Amino acid sequence: MPGILVAGARRIGFELRGYFRTPDAVFFTFLFPLVMLGIFGVAFQASGEVGVRADGTGGVTMAAYYLPGMAAAGLLLIGVQNLATDIARERSDGWLRRLGGTPLSPVSYFIGKIGMILITALAQLVLLIAFAVVAFQVELPTEPELWLRLAWLFGLGIIAMALLGVALSALPRSSRSATAVILPVVLLLQFISGVYLQFSMLPEWLQQVAGLFPLKWLAQGMRSVFLPEHFELQELGESWDLGWVAVNLGVWLVVGLVLSLLTFRWQRRS
Fold first, then answer.
1. N or C: fewer beta carbons within 10 Å in the chain?
2. How many structural domains compose the chain?
3. How far, in Å, CA of 139 to CA of 11, rounded?
């Protein structure tokens, strides 16, 4: 077991170097939320503040409003899109089959993958928050309990997304089809889960559909961290429902784990 852990730790460094040496992966999974936050923050800056109370207080800028959604989308992009396409490519190109013929343990392989996902997701979140503060003067929460909430949302969310990424990697039949299979799923979830559109503006039936998937709950939890308390009334049940956020993310974590165990293969399907 110590040898497996040491090999896994070394795989983390290997995976990180490979990730940051791939410009398209870095842009579309690591920097993409920052780019989108910058676009939305600048494009809608003239429209004024969102969520202003009747007395004229409590509003936030568009950049502050979009920050929670981009934070949730970042975990989806790194955990699902990046990991699913990466594993599908390695399987299609024969890398996994070759690794299966070496002394490398599958546990070490996945320690490397999950470690890379955790580090890049944490770096992305820190960079996204710093960008929002420096570029748009977004005010951050000051209560310690909100930062603790962000910590468990991040941990539960990124693990669930990573396991779903492993499970989704079984769908593409080749490295060429990986992006075509995975990208539409990722984009659709972002549009119906309150990332690019205000969730309260969506039809109620579409909000119900989005509630079946983890990104909606992760975005809702992020809004509870970064937005003022009165924004809670704009949610579907007029509540942050943090208990249901944890339950849904936990359920999807288990679903992702079961699907990963059932569908993961070292060789591509014929």
1. C
2. 1
3. 38
- 204 found inside a domain: yes
Distance CA 89, CA 71 (A): 26
> What are the φ/ψ torsions at residue 60 (nearest 5 degrees)?
-130, 155
Longest dimension (CA), the chain: 68
First to last CA, the chain: 34
Rounded CA gap, 155 and 157, in Å? 5
87 inside domain = yes
Give pLDDT tens digits for 9-51.
999 999 999 999 988 889 989 999 999 999 999 988 777 888 8
Alpha-carbon span 189 to 173, nearest angstrom = 22
Distance separating alpha carbons of residues 178 and 121, to the nearest angstrom: 21
38: containing domain:
4-263
* Nearest alpha carbon to residue 99 among 113, 114, 83, 82: 113
Query: For residues 203 and 236, what is the distance between their CA atoms, to the nearest angstrom?
Result: 10
pTM of the prediction?
Answer: 0.92
Residue 102 Cα distances to 8, 94, 182, angstroms: 14, 13, 29
In a domain, 270, yes or no: no
